[in-house]
Write a structure and sequence with these properties.
By secondary structure, the protein is of the alpha/beta class. The chain folds into two domains: about 240 residues, Rossmann fold; about 240 residues, Rossmann fold. The protein has 17 helices and 22 strands. Strands 6-7-8-3-9-10 form a six-stranded mixed beta sheet, with helices on both faces. A six-stranded mixed beta sheet has the order 16-19-20-13-21-22, with helices on both faces. Strands 2-1-4-5 form a four-stranded antiparallel beta sheet, covered by helices on one side. Helix 13 crosses helix 14. It is globular, with a radius of gyration of 25 Å. The termini are far apart. About 40% of the residues are buried.
Amino acid sequence: MSKQILSVKQIDKRFKGVHALKGIDFDLNEGEVHALVGENGAGKSTLMKILTGIYEKDSGEMHYLGKLYHPHGPKQALQMGIGIIHQELNMMDHLTVAQNIFIGRESMHKSGLFLDEKAQNQRAQALFDRLNMNIDPSELLGNLTVGMQQMVEIAKAVSHDLKVLILDEPTAALTNTEIDELFTIMRNLSKQKVAMIYISHRMDEIHRITNRVTVMRDGEYIGTRDTDKVTKEEIIQMMVGRVIYEDPKQKSNVEDGAQVVLKVSNLHAGKMVKDVSFELRRGEILGFSGLIGAGRTETVRALFGADKIESGTIEINGKPALIKTPRDAVEHGIGYLSEDRKRYGLCTGLSVIDNSIMATYESYQKYSFMQQGKMRKVAQQFSEAMKIKTPSLEQLVVNLSGGNQQKVVIAKWLIKNSDILIFDEPTRGIDVGAKSEIYHLMNELAKEGKSIIMISSEMPEVLRMSDRVIVMCEGRITGELDISEANQEKIMAFATMNN
């Protein structure tokens, strides 16, 4: 029987206007990989921040290694053997790998006056050997891929002699090969009796790598199951309290002869957009598929005026459109939801109201004053329509869950009444419940006559949502499929086609 290393009993936590955790129970065994799942806003991150000393609990008890545990900060938690790898990496690109790992714990020459880089690199190499990582300690961190940088962050955490490692959405930005490498390292750590809490929205990964899964919903503990004894559908139903179906779309919903609202011809932009041509019809969801680096995002960025177009033409509703800047695109009725919503889609330090009306700000200005009443009314209307979960419209967007942040971005473009919407990875980092709501919204928008370009790296999402699929490889369109004939094999064949 596995030794219990950590237990949480009846943990409660409140913030202003939000009861974030309501009597949560959780336990972790030595050497196990324990999945923690739930919709965005379920309380997972709050619980992890309490475990790592970032937040103080309001009530309840925690036991670690058989003793009461009450950390007063992340540093103390790390010293006691509990560390976390956040979804957004927190390292310094201009330093070497070894310097990042041992920052604050540098190797010094005997004099104590100078750094001993050679000894520090040797310490890092010994750590990599233990973890079976093939990384050069002297390489600048900024020269590594995101996947390799994440391996370095794991090595840094493990260098503190961890007993518990928390991984928050560790595969969100990784390729399939990098995910395989991560799982190999996790299995190796498990053999060394390191216990891991694995937070992910990817159900297939949970069955590949975890031993048990605990489900949270609306700040409450729902249950814990052995991973090999519970199905993906059962986990999802526990998460959202309802059944969610993910069947592929069988046929296009677009009527024959529907108006072409966007025509792109022979578009060239930089190294990643080469002679791209396609059409988008009214009420259509046009899926863009392809491997990482295929040029999908670069294509829509050029279309939106975010990147310079070198040659080619764009027509909107049959008329030539000159788009040199995002403002030009917005004036032509195009809205863009970037794959990086925090960087390009939101001002996270502003409120829900301010973000919602950002694209129409000038409409609410009268003389030198803003019409606060009208702003609030329209923001309230779309917040309710989008079912945005927020204590108030004054809430800062940074405090919302990922799914609700995405809804605010969508609300911004709906308030602008954009006819063409570009959704770049619309459900990345969003739980299955919020995904279902985004899918429903996209279908409703298409029924109302909006036209959508959707980029997605998730094949089931492409097959579920698209009326037609455009496939790209190395900057070029290599295939086009009606959804009635599309499947994963055909899409992958086009996605790997040599030009």
